[in-house]
Every structure is written in C-alpha cells, then in structure tokens.
Amino acid sequence: MTIVVGYPPNRKGKAVLNLAALLARSSGEDLAVCVVAPGSWLPGLVREDAAYQSQIDDMTDGALAQARSELPADVSATFTTVKARSAPTGLLEAAEQHKASMIAVGSSAAGLFGHVALSSVADRLLHSSPIPVALAPRGFRSGDTAKFTRVTVAYTGTEHCDSMLRTAADLAGKIGAKMRLASFAVQHAPPVTAMFRTESAGVLAEWTTNIQESAHRVLGDSTEPGGHDVVIGHGSDWEAALHDVDWGDGDLLVVGSSESGPIARVFLGSRAAKIIRHSPVPVLVVPREAAESP
C-alpha cells in the first residue's frame, strides 16, 4: 500500500518528510508526496487567469523539487500535484486514488517546537479522514533512528478502545516494533497528585492489571495477560502526565478517535486532542471501525 504525504506549498515540510521516511522504512510501503494546489479556474479571456495559473504552477513545482531534495534517497516515493478546492480535500482524494493506508501531515508553524500543533489542514483531517492520520511534531527529526522501534498505545481498557488496540497491534507486528500500553492520571491539584502517587501503589497495580487483562481480552492468543509493558503517566496537567512517561527516538504514539464521532471516520475528542497537543513524539490517530467483524 501507499502512504500519502501532505507537503505544504510554502516548502516548510521537512518534519513531515522525516516522519514519512520512518513510516516507509518501518512498513515497507511507498510514499506519495502530494502538494495541493487550487483547482483550475474556468477558462477565461483575461490575461490575469493565465498569469495566476503560471504562479501556482511555479509554486507547486518548486515545492515538489524541494521535497525531492529533502526526502532521503533510500525511500521510494512519487511526487505529484493535486488540484482541489482545499488541502484536506485534495489529500483525501489522493488517499482514495492511491488506496492509501494513512495520511501524514506536519504541524502548524505557529506551534511549540518539538510538539504537535494542529494546523487547519490537520484539524480538518482529524475530523473527517476514513484512514489513520500521522502527525509530525514541529521540527521533527529522526536522528539516527531508521525505523520505529516501539508503538505506544494510549489505552484505557474500555471497549471503545478495542478497534484502536487491534490496529496498533497489527501495526506493531507489521513493522517489527514492541508495543506498550500507556494511560494517564491527571490530577489538577498538585498535593492530591503527590498523595495519589505515593500512597496508592495498590491502586496503580490494579489499574495496570486491568489494562493488561483488557488487552488480552481484545488480542486473545496473540498476547498473554501481563505480556505488554504498561506505563501510567502522572501530572497536574496533561503536559506533565505525558512527559512523566519515558519516550525515545523510535517511539510512535497511537491514539483512537472519540466514541462520539461518526463511525469509520477520525473524530478528535477533547481527551485525544490534549494527548496529541502534548506528545513529544509522532502521533498516529486511528478512526473507529465501520462495523464489528462477525
């Protein structure tokens, strides 16, 4: 299959290319790097129409040339311009055309360096895409890491997370990565957080066991109870809770859609949005299943 990569016309897309290269090496899939340009105007008689189209062509050609130069040579990719009324529409159309497994996009240039900042394009995709959406933190660099080595799943153990967990397990198996289950304890009053952490080891142990047993319930014989590492991040806010967990260069965080969203589409809930906003590693957002398997 193919991974569609949204490369911005302003040429500030090195981070998403770094993410796409990791995804391609890890999965063995090819990339389709797309620059979305405004759709052609209706044929007119005025000279300005042709001049405008020429500017658009120059802009997209320049962006594609830079994307070619920035993508590592060992990654197989095609480069194309997609004409559509908006960037999200163009990327979704390209994904359908290529029968893509996911769409990868970068962060807003206005966001914090090293964190995911949702651009208008990413925000729209996170409320409409029928396939997973991968998000690169602003300024993301893969360093010496050639592939993803660990898939961390934001998992609560509820049935709503079942399809997301299966997708994450399939992805981890496909790319040969370890899988880790993560949950987050956010207590907004620091003294309460401190007390919770120091005096409730039994609660944490029970919480960890419940998560492991829920994973075994979903994945069946593919895992044993207690077979996956479980981490619980603590903090007085979501940023502190996310950073309480150990992260490495080869980590990919998987988050599921909101249960209130439309079926078979990504729909970002408030909890997922907070996790994404404070994640220090790339994030893959998985849509809900269209229907349960019989």
Annotation keywords:
294 residues; alpha/beta; 38% helix; single chain; 10 strands
Quick structural gist:
The protein is α/β, with parallel strands linked by helices and 294 residues long.
Low-confidence stretches: 260-264, 290-294
**Strand order, largest beta sheet:** 3-2-1-4-5-10-9-6-7-8
N-to-C span: 25 Å
Largest sheet: 10 strands, mixed
Average pLDDT taken over every residue: 82
Class by helix and strand content?
Answer: alpha/beta
Proportion in helices: 25-40%
User: What proportion of the residues form beta strands (DSSP E)?
Assistant: 15-25%
Characterize the quaternary organization of these chains: single chain
Query: Count of DSSP helices?
Result: 9
Report the radius of gyration as a whole number of Å: 20 Å
Shape: elongated
Total count of strands: 10
- The ordered string of helix (H) and strand (E) elements is EHEHEHEHEEHEHHEHEHE
